Amino acid sequence: MLNRGFSAELRRVVTFTLLCVVVGLLNGYLTWTLIIGGALYMAWMMWQIHRLDVWLQSSRDQNPPDASGIWGDVFDNIHRLQKRQQREKDRLKQVVRRGQETTAALREGIILLDRYGNIDWFNGSAVQLLQLRSQDQGHPLVNFIRHPAFVQYLERKNFELPLDLPSPHSEAVRLQYQVTNFGLGEHLVLVRDVTRVHKLEQMRKDFVANVSHELRTPLTVILGYVETLSMAPDVPEKWRKALDQVEAQGKRMSSLLSDLIVLSKLETDDSKTAHKPVMLKPLLLQVKSDAEVFSGERGHQISLTCPDDLQLLGSDKELQSVFSNLVLNAVKYSGDHTAIHINVSQSSLGVNVAVRDEGAGIDPVHLPRLTERFYRVDNSRHSGTGGTGLGLAIVKHALLRHGAKLDIESYPGKGSTFTCIFPIQRVVAADAPLAYKSRAIQSER
Ligand code: ADP
Prior knowledge:
Radius of gyration: 40 Å
Number of domains: 4
Structural class: alpha+beta
Order of helices and strands: HHHEEHHEEEHHEHEEHEEHHEEH
Bound molecules: adenosine-5'-diphosphate
Number of helices: 12
């Protein structure tokens, strides 16, 4: 169906043509009259286009020029579109303004990075926390947070966990960075001031470390006396049982304190200065032989497969503690005369050290919490194992310090496999000088 403007224009053309025909017939120059009429119509059309052009180039707020027929429709439609676009623009501006007001009110700093890691935008809190200025936009964020750990965090692109670091402007302030991917390779960096939480956490660690140290000496004295007393020949029989109980519980407390001290050292000591090439095979042979002694008459069959010259960069004491905890757990939680396999495998991704047992296994519901401090699957069942519930927490922390992680696979009734996954960066190249390696290990012992 034709719209109104177009029908009016059509009527105008037909009327004008008929008029030209009549005038042409009257003056005897029909063809010329029609040509002149057509030229006039074309000129009028050109004039309307010129008006449209002038109007479009002028300010958007001006009303469209008056016109009838198809040109009236064209002007009105364009004007309506302009008004709709303006309304949409105003709405979007309002949304952006609200967004900016909301992010400005946030206590967290927000920084948007483009795909090259340059600062695109930041809110008011980012200005306070990192002292950014508007002229810093377009510059790489790593120019303002130069801490190597932050640079590595951005480069690795693994943003599962946040990163806590001292503020670039004050050692006393602790900032937490959490990065989220968005858009096409862009990033959103959330910056939080976690000084208070960090201080509390530090106090907790110090408290645990101090209490453990302070309790150790009196406990050693008590245990010493209890041991002497229980060895005395004239102790009445009714007290002997009580003394044995005190001694057993005292020893349990002592190993609890030792584990707490190890754990708090791992948590508080940030330095990785002790990291040197460590030969895995001799270390695991030692762990294996300790576990065989621990197993004693229970007769576990412990096997070890490990490449002869494989070395990891790390602390031999911490690695020893990791593997020893896992292998002793395998002994503790699996039946007599069952097999335990320690298997070391190397790939282009890194090194895996797996400890597999044929024990009772662990219900999958417990797996996510197994590395928490004092988490034990079944306290009553394991009360006789002499465990403290801190072993796997120590394993987790020591592995974290080596950039490694623990993978646990377990099938109730069939057994468990605890695998330490070390990244390739931890593997020492096979052509590194051997003399240096063995000297380094001995000097640490
Ligand atoms: P614990 O000192 O009690 O052994 P851990 O932190 O080493 O503490 O282990 C936590 C819990 O995980 C243990 O109490 C035990 O229930 C379970 N566990 C650890 N290793 C094994 C294993 N190899 N097989 C079965 N259960 C295990």
